[in-house]
Design brief:
Strand content: under 5%
Radius of gyration: 22 Å
Mean pLDDT: 84
Order of helices and strands: HHHHHHHHHHHHHHHHHHHH
Shape: globular
CATH class of one domain: Mainly Alpha
CATH architecture of one domain: Alpha Horseshoe
Number of helices: 20
C-alpha cells in the first residue's frame, strides 16, 4: 500500500498545503540564500488610479477600514463595471471582518491547532456582503474574458477575487477543500497573466508565494500539492516576491509584508526589522505593523527593545492613536517578551491583562490562560496555576492548550 492510500492522510496533508498557500498575510516559509534589495516607497500605480482608490488604500494599510470602505464604495460608484473596483471594496470588507474577529494574528498559523480550531463567529450580514461582492467581481471578470479571452487585466482580477475567496473560506469557514480550489484557481489565473505579460509584476505575488512555499516544504507535502496541480521553486518564488515588492503596483505592499514574514521565519531578523520599520513609518497608524516590529525585536533576541516597543505600542493604543486596535495582542507579546527575560510576575500580569478584553480571540485567550498558569507554577502559586489549567479545559476540552493543561494538572510546569 502506498503512503497516499489513506484518505485521512491525504486530507491532512492537503490541509497543510492549504494553510501554506491561501493565507497570504501569514506565509510559512523556510530558509533561503537569495537576497535582493527591497524598496519601501509608497505605491505609485493602482488598478484604478483615481483619488478615491488611492485614499482608500492609504486608509486600508493604516487599518482604518471604515474610511477605506467608504472610499472604495465611491470608486465603485464611479466604475460600476470594473472588477478592480469591486475587488478593492471586497478587500476592505473582508479584511475589516478578519481584523475584527482576530484572524490576522500571524501566531495562529504557525500552530498545528489552527487546523483543528473552530469557525470564527463571522457576522452573517458581512458574510452575505462578501459573497455578493465576490460573485459580482467574478461575473464582471468572466464577462470581459468571454469577450476577450486573453484580457490580462480581467485574468488578474479574477485571480485576485479567487484569492480573496480562498482566504475567507479557509480562515473564517474552515472549508479547506473549497478554499483550496479557489487558491489553485488564483494561481493559475496569475500564471496565465505572466505567460501573456511577463512584466505584470502584481501577478508575481501569488505565484511567487506559492512557488516559494511549495518549493520549501517536505516531500510528502510536495506530492500532495502536485495532486492539485501545484508545484514550486524556492529560487523562482523569492525572485517573484522581490519583483512584486519592488514593482510599485498595488500588490507591492502585500508582497513586502510577505517578505518580512518570510525573513522572520528564516531568522534573518536585521533585514526583516529594516523592512517592517520602513513600512510602519509609511503607515504609522497600522497597529499590526507596529506589533510585528515589536515581535521581531523579541524574536531576534533583543528583549529590552521588544519590551520598550510593546510598552510604547500599548501607550499609543490606549491613547487612541490606532483605530480599533487589538490591544490584547500587544499585551500577549509583552508577556512573551517578559517571560523570555524570566520576569515571571510581569509576564503573568501581561497574560492576565489579555483575559480582561471582551473581544479577545478564543485561541489567544487559551494561549494567554496557559501562559498565566505556567507563570503561576514558576512563582510557586500552585492553586492559581490549577485554576487556569481547569479554565482551559472547561473552555475548549479538545485543543493543544487543553492537552498541556491536563499534563500540568498532574505535574507543575517547569523550565
Amino acid at each position: 500500500m502506498t503512503p497516499y492510500g489513506s484518505s485521512g492522510f491525504r486530507r491532512r496533508v492537503l490541509c497543510h498545503v492549504l494553510v501554506f498557500v491561501v493565507t497570504l498575510a501569514v506565509p510559512l516559509a523556510f530558509a533561503s540564500d537569495t537576497k535582493k534589495p527591497t524598496t519601501t516607497s509608497q505605491i505609485t500605480h493602482y488598478h484604478l488610479d483615481d483619488p478615491h482608490t488611492r485614499a482608500g488604500f492609504d486608509y486600508f494599510y493604516n487599518l482604518d477600514y471604515v474610511r477605506a470602505i467608504k472610499e472604495f464604495e465611491a470608486a465603485l460608484a464611479a466604475h460600476p463595471d470594473d472588477p478592480a473596483a469591486v475587488n478593492h471594496l471586497l478587500s476592505g470588507v473582508l479584511f475589516q471582518e478578519l481584523y475584527r474577529i482576530g484572524a490576522l494574528d500571524s501566531e495562529l498559523y504557525a500552530k498545528e491547532g489552527f487546523l483543528k480550531s473552530k469557525q470564527y463567529p463571522s457576522d452573517p450580514k458581512i458574510k452575505e456582503r462578501i459573497n455578493e461582492l465576490t460573485n459580482r467581481a467574478l461575473q464582471l471578470s468572466e464577462a470581459k474574458l468571454k469577450a476577450t479571452p486573453n484580457d490580462v487585466d480581467a485574468l488578474y482580477q479574477r485571480g485576485v477575487t479567487r484569492g480573496l475567496k480562498s482566504t475567507y473560506t479557509a480562515l473564517v469557514e474552515k472549508a479547506w477543500f473549497s478554499a483550496l480550489r479557489s487558491a489553485v484557481g488564483a494561481r493559475h489565473d496569475h500564471e496565465k497573466v505572466l505567460e501573456l505579460d511577463p512584466n505584470y509584476t502584481d501577478a508575481k505575488m501569488i505565484v511567487g508565494m506559492h512557488n516559494y512555499v511549495i518549493g520549501s516544504v517536505s516531500w510528502a507535502v510536495k506530492v500532495a500539492a502536485s495532486m492539485v496541480g501545484l508545484s514550486g521553486s524556492r529560487k523562482k518564488g523569492i525572485e517573484y516576491l522581490y519583483e512584486a515588492a519592488n514593482g510599485d503596483g498595488e500588490a507591492s505592499v502585500d508582497a513586502k509584508i510577505a517578505l518580512a514574514l518570510f525573513l522572520r521565519r528564516e531568522e534573518r531578523y536585521p533585514e526583516a526589522i529594516t523592512l517592517v520599520d520602513s513600512m510602519a513609518t509609511s503607515y504609522p497608524k497600522n497597529f499590526l505593523m507596529a506589533l510585528e516590529l515589536a515581535n521581531l525585536y523579541n524574536a531576534a533576541g533583543r528583549a529590552p527593545q521588544a519590551i520598550a516597543a510593546y510598552e510604547k505600542l500599548l501607550k499609543n493604543a490606549e491613547a487612541g492613536f490606532y483605530p480599533d486596535a487589538h490591544i490584547e495582542m500587544a499585551w500577549y507579546g509583552l508577556g512573551e517578551a517578559e517571560r523570555g527575560q524570566h520576569n515571571f510576575q510581569a509576564a503573568e500580569q501581561a497574560y492576565e491583562k489579555v483575559l480582561t478584553f471582551a473581544k479577545t480571540d478564543p485561541d489567544l485567550k487559551l494561549r494567554a490562560t496557559l501562559g498565566a498558569g505556567e507563570m503561576c507554577d514558576l512563582l510557586q502559586r500552585r492553586n492559581d496555576a490549577m485554576k487556569h489549567y481547569n479554565a482551559i479545559i472547561a473552555q475548549v476540552n479538545d485543543s493543544p492548550q487543553a492537552d498541556q493543561a491536563r499534563k500540568y494538572l498532574k505535574e507543575p510546569y517547569r523550565i
